[in-house]
Structure formats: structure tokens, C-alpha cells
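Sequence in, structure out.
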Amino acid sequence: MSVSPEQLMEELRTLCRGRGVQTPGIDLHVGPALRQVCGIVETDGAEAVRTKLREWVTNAARGFPVEVRNAVLAPLGLHEDAQYRFLNERIEWLARQQDRGARTVRRRMESGLQRLVEVALQPAPTTVHLAPSELWHVKEFDALLKLDGPTPACTERRTVVADTDGVNEIAWSITIPSPTPEGAPGDLDIEVLHGVELIGHERPSPRRFLMKLRLPRPLNTGQTHQFALEVRVPRGQSMRPTYVFWPERMCESFRLRVRFDRDDLPESVWRVDEALARDTDDLTPWPKKLPVDEIGEIDVEFSHPRQGRGYGVQWAPRPRT
């Protein structure tokens, strides 16, 4: 079923009424358009429906301006400080918080709901038809980010699978954000550990590094090969507190481990899952907080990460005293 923007917008408006997402028996009040965009199935009970709605709205609105984001969360009953019984009460609360009239807040609500519709109905990434020598995908991607040494370093191991005969080269890329919003992208030191030979190195943009890697022998369809590289931030250069993987081709599984300095543990760490473009720019904490274990590590896994979405972790450094 295709979802029309008008139908989805009307269902969102309807959902704002009463207690919003907190309405008892919410599974009986969600229309087909919302069910499709949120992945709600017939067997989902009320709490499962409520959880899927909350996660979809929260993630979709994460990149909105604060006033627009709150103008979505509060009317839908998803703002923890605006758990009022009626929509009018939540609008009045929001008007007080933003020092604006109720009419202005309702306009912001409409704008925010429209943004949700745009996020839900954005077209899927265009399929790129690759040359036969480039037809391969990632079976496993395992990354270990070490933050307890003289400079941040990441060991990245990939197992690739040939989807055609004669695969003899692999393209590997990494994009780095600037250490600060105002700063310029930094540099990286990249070393091959095993499994491939580095035969080309480009920097197509200030943030993106592209490597051309030769395999020890051509792979035929279904054959696998593992290789590893280590990426280091040059000494003295700071690193943005984020590691997010944006798959450029099919990947069956991604596992990330981060080892923090036990004498400088972060204030909080959170999981980034299916992020949209720019969702991770402002380092706003996501709902899924991650505990750091007793040896200063976190470990997350993602099954079949989608191309064009972001997966990984971010953290908030502890304030310096």
C-alpha cells in the first residue's frame, strides 16, 4: 500500500487529540498510514504500538529545530513534562514554555507534523548499478575504537562476499566530522593490517577519505575474504565524540566496541540506530543509553543495517573541572 501525505497528516492530527500516544487502547486508534511507516503489524498490542510510535516520532524529529521538535512531541503526548489529558492543555503548556501564543504554537505543531510526513515519505536512495568488478557486499564489519591510548585509534575488520566472478579490488571509504561545529575536518593516519594492498588513496572532499584496495587473488561468486585496517587520529588532533557507520552497500552485520579511558569515562553514551542525514550533527542524546562496563567498554551490534542510514554510538565527555 502506498501512503499518501494527506492521509498520513490527517492520522497524525487525529493522534494528537485526547491523550495522544498515551491513549489507552492506542492500537485501536492508529490508522493504516501510520501503521505502515512505523512498522506496526496486526499482532502488536497497545504497548508495542505505543513503543513503535514513540521511537519513530522521536527519531524522525531529532534533527528538527528545538521549538518545532517540542511542538511535535508535546501535542502527541510524548514530552515527559507535558503529560496532560487534553490537547488544549498541552498546547497551553507549550505556549508558556516558548513564550508564544497558542495560535503560534498550533502553527508550529502543523509545521512539525508536516516535517514528520516529509521524513516518512522521503524517497528511497537510488540504486547504483556497479561494474562487475565492484559487485560485492559486506558480510561482517567489526570495529574496535580505542580511546585509552595516546590518540584515538580504530581497528576495522571487514569480511566481504563476491556477488560476481572476478572481484579483485575493494573500495573503502571513511567520512570524518570536524572536531567542533565551527572547525575544519581533520586528518587520519591509515594503515593496512592484513588481507589487502593499498593501491590508491584519494580525498574527494575535505571530510571523505577513499581507499582503493587490491585483494591477494580474485574472488568468484560467493567467496569471502577478510581484511583489516587501523585508522588513527594524528596526535594532538581532537576527535568528535561519535562513531557512526553509514553503509554505502549491503551489509549483513555490524558490531562496534568502544574502549574508553577508565580515568576519563564519558558522562553518558547512547546508541545511534537508523539515523537520517544530519540526525547526529548536534550530539543530542538518543533514548537508548548504553552502560559502560567495569573495564570501560561498550559493545553494540546491528543486524542488516540499511544503506543510507547511520548506526553506532555517540557520547558526552565528562565536564572538565
